[in-house]
Predict the structure.
Amino acid sequence: MPLKRIIIALIFIPLLIFCILRGGIVFLGLVCIIIGGGLFEFYQGMKKEDRNLFLIEGICLGLVVPVSVYLWGEGILPLILTLSIFFLFLRQFLSFETRKAFINISLTLGGILYISVLFSYVLILRNNPPLTGAGSLSGARLVMTVFFVTWMADTSAYFIGGKWGRHKLFPRFSPYKSLEGLVGAVLVSCIAMFISQLWLSFSLTHTLILGISVGIMGQVGDFFESMLKREVGIKDFGKILPGHGGILDRFDSLLFTIPFFYYYIKYLV
């Protein structure tokens, strides 16, 4: 593993654990930083000469999402999204610019849906865990579990695919991702999920299903981001995290695994 990746991990992971355990406004602040940074990278990366995305407006609307979810829960999301659509259409109308209007609005709103809404589920999982009062199944432990399992799967896919990857999955979108990497991600995800039983108490069946599902969903999130990068011809969305790329490059898998993890526990566990 490159030295830069190790250094960034040693700095960031303890900070992340501290914020998760502390919860409240501290964790909300970290989530807002991640969402704001991810939106900035997304809008900058998706811009082309014929596009005029609403960067400032998109980031501001995107930050309204986690704050609203923190204050009023997931039930506020439909209202926030409706108001965001209305505001973006009004903003486009007042610009008196019709060229690529629908694309500009759609991509700005798409960033909010993709980054703000999906990642805001980490606040719901932390502050309103779907298994309230279930002893060891506290919100903080659930959040740490989904981060741990997702990133372990990502790391294994990176190394196993890099060393033994021979059968490419979708080379048009990502020339480096392989079937071997996917299998490794799922296997390590299951192992990580079983390790998490040191602080959780899921049944064997749910542990196995979650391990497989999180491993797969994390790779789907990674592929989705790769598809976006190929569309605009960039390698990474940013460089703020040396050895990892940008914020969006580091959290792309979690954007898919966190909502899945939350709803699985809420309706099936």
